[in-house]
Amino acid sequence: MPRTYPFVWVDVFAPTALEGNQLAVFPDARGLSDEEMQSVARETHLSETTFVFPEGDPVDRERGYRTRIFAVAEEMPFAGHPTLGTASVLAERTAVDEVALRLNIGTIPVHFTVREGRRFGEMLQNNPEVGQTHDRGAVARALGVAEEEIDPKHPIQTISTGVPFAIVPFRRRDALSRLQPSWSSMSDYLRGTDAKLFYLLAFDPVEPSAAAHARMVFLGGDDPATGSAAGPAIAWMVLHGRAKPGASTLIEQGLEVHRRSHLYTRADLRDGRPVNVRVGGYCAPVIEGTLTL
User: Fold this and answer.
1) 20 to 30 A from 270, CA-CA: which of 5, 43, 152, 258?
2) Which of 35, 43, 48, 129 is flagged as catalytic?
3) Is 48 a catalytic residue?
4) Residues 142 and 116 in one domain
């Protein structure tokens, strides 16, 4: 007999539909094997697809919804826009103000409020782990950019709230937007470090309300919105005086691929270390359908 699995397609960190980062959410994936979930992720061909395994109201509310995140090629321990998008779908269905997801890195709570008539979600990420400081010249060569385009006033530093990113500050948005790095060159460099990916920042954004303009280039191209990097980014910004502790700080991303994204971030500073990292935004459901196997 055929098996059917409803799904919701959501644009995450999206000011409006057809922007932000796309996500397919399967709110009840019970019965799917690991191999089937990976095949479904290849079928959607989105950067990530999420699968929720509900265990019943008391368990899900107390312990969080068991959720797994699959990219096209592999399962992910954590990713930001899948966490926010999945929690948004579940909050809409259950009419609650807080949803926790049990991910492979642990439980991530997402709190919802209403802003300007729309549901706004904010996740509390794991406290940041600060890693190595990178050589500016070596990073410039890996990115294929002149060394002087990288701001020497602040360090290039690995920070992780679940996925380790090397945060790279650029002097000018123009140089960042024109950048066309080689994934092969970037990955050759990153393999010898504690970072998995680069997150590139410039502090002369397009939108007046934003504090930073961001890009995250990976094997699949430009990521429209990277919630797992925005957490390390705000931790870095607070740590190095580019954002005020506790203040809501908007990061814009995705403009180079015509997928405008707004990532609202904030972090506190305690004893010289960033803590209480929060990343939030809006979500726009755009498609509902059913998978038949």
Assistant:
1) 152
2) 48
3) yes
4) no
